[in-house]
Amino acid sequence: MCGIAVDYRGDEILSIRGDQDHVLSKGNICPKSSGLQDVHTDPDRLRRPIKKVDGEWHEIGWDEAFDETATRLADIQRRHGLDSIASYTGRSIAHNIGALLTVMPTRMLMGTKSVYTASTVDQQPHNFVWYFMFGHQFMATIPNLDRTDYYLMLGTNPKISNGAQMATGANVYKKLDAIRARGGQVVLIDPRRTETAEHCSEHHFIRPSTDALFLMGLVKVIFEKGLATPGRLAEHIVGWDKMEPIAREFDLEQIADVTGIASADIQRIAVDLASAKSAICYGRTGLSMQEFGGLCNWLMMVINIITGNLDEPGGMTFPLPAIDPIDTIDGARGSWDRYRSRVSGRPEFAGEFPVSVLAEEIMTPGEGQIRGLMSIAGNGALSLPNGKLFEEALDELEFMVSFDMYLNETTRHADIILPPVGPFEKGHYDLFYQTYNTINWTAYNPPLFQPVAPGYTDFEIIGEVLKRLVIKRTRNPLKKLFAKVVGGIVRRWVTPERILDLGLRFGPYGAGLNPFNKEGLTLKKLKDNPHGVYIGEHKRCLPARLFHKDKKIRLVPEVIAADIPRLKQRWLSSETGAPSEFDMVIVGRLQRRTLGWMHNSQRLVKGKDTCTLYIHPDDASTRGIEDGSVVSVSSAAGSIQLPAEITDSVMPGVVCMPPLWGHNRAGTRRTVANAHPGASMNDITNQKVMDQLTGNAVVHGVPVKVEAVQQQSASALVDAP
What we know:
The protein is of the alpha/beta class. The chain has four domains: 4-41, no CATH class; 61-121 and 326-536, Rossmann fold, CATH 3.40.50; 139-321, Dimethylsulfoxide Reductase, domain 2 (3-Layer(aba) Sandwich), CATH 3.40.228; 577-719, Barwin-like endoglucanases, CATH 2.40.40. It has 27 helices and 27 strands. The protein has a seven-stranded mixed β-sheet with strand order 4-3-18-17-16-5-6, covered by helices on one side. Helix 8 packs across helix 11 (263-275) and helix 18 (458-473) packs antiparallel against helix 19.
């Protein structure tokens, strides 16, 4: 979402810097932007399709690659049914307009229910709650930071993430400072005193996975103090009378004892938030990627509603993007439990299953077994729970095709890899992240360079595979001819730019087909304004924009409320199990410089090793761990080793490490990443443990055992083969 200015000569990039005139980021960029230069010139980046023959990779032509991919997929579906082919899409397609535009066509043309995405190891609880409360999974609520007086954050580190679900353009810490400068308060709740904490009024440690209890405590106090008010939405809320009795069942002292946050602090935070002129309760992956992700996201929304801060200036507001996915993407509203997974019986949500069950669906024989996989821009070996098991599952497939620029830890298991062109060789439009805008704005960036022919975008590659798949799978000659004709028309005339232009023209700010409408948005207007177009601040939109038929908010959806007994049983039950050898818990931490797929950028990974385990001095002392020494971290799923970093920024009983490392698998081609391997946190996460309500994977709060291994320096571990 950051605007960048690229200086170049011919096909050589000279520098990348922040665009001072960009409407959102105003010159601010994060270090990751500079890494795009390395991606563009990376000699490890694939430029041609490669095929595995007898364990060896060979470069092949595009036509052969397209044809064999479609033939193999069609053959499996003919023999075993449509559901025998699965699709998995990684999180990075959210930044890739071409790949993103193929998501719905891929689901429709493949005809399979075996659909998996990285959403269920990331933000699924958000979408789940929005769907049940507002009627649409993309009704994203965004903190109105510029106008708020009180900001409560849980499980988020926006100083490093640059906002995540509140796109600000790498300057969110300035907005936090501005809140305090105008007399407001910023409160952070997190098991670690993160980089964001220095920009907050106060920070409180919290025991991992107990956030739902803390939030329930806030709800209880708000009702008890008579501070609950629905505001102007009173007539549009269903279930108000159900919420107070639910909160009343919880004891504040018990909550304080379990969470580690004093009862007096819980009461003060609740009163301050509810009494502020405007306030926000917001949380991100620390809440969604845990055992009670669904309840956490629901209770955050409840707090915003019962304090009258939903859809109000300075509260949680709703963006209206230039291309509104709510109105333009057919079938995007969401769904729940229309069908279930074959092995574990997990319900679908929005047409996909939890990615945690993908391995078992591949490895369990029987009717409906997954036998082929289309993997699009995802490195599941490092990003999915129990990555090693996932890799074992991949080796059992009859056929796997990866759409990816690299031969990485996941694509090495494929039979064919189809690489798209680099990020500067295709147009860029942030279709997905516009739904998280803190202001309404839009921009388009055309390709900077032409790819070396033949080179294709994700849109072209996936589209060609789908066209050939449909033709080869179809037995009827007339249908086959029809598919060829339609496929040819689509290939010639349907492009991302044409789709974007139509989306802009017929979006909420569009010019339509009126050639005299100079104010309305078109793709040409965005091209004429390379720094972006400012549209305006968020405006009130409820109840008109609610998607339940009665235009009302469901404050206490039954399916969510039914999960409350599980919360009580987990934390408030008098039954205590036997002591476990896994006496600590691990949480993840974001890093300023790198994303997993950018670990092959030398300028981003150089310097001090950042794949370390944060551990509190008291915990290190009792285990004989010294700063920089190698430790073993084991769980019920596996074990890893990495250097320890002793710090009081993490609370006692908790350890912390960054995800998406682990570049020590054989058979990859990422020279820089392999030289800085780190350890994969997902080698110790458990695919069997998930948020039972939403199906989201549990990454934060995993029970672990930490032991000293040997007095070996961190540099020695990194340099080891």
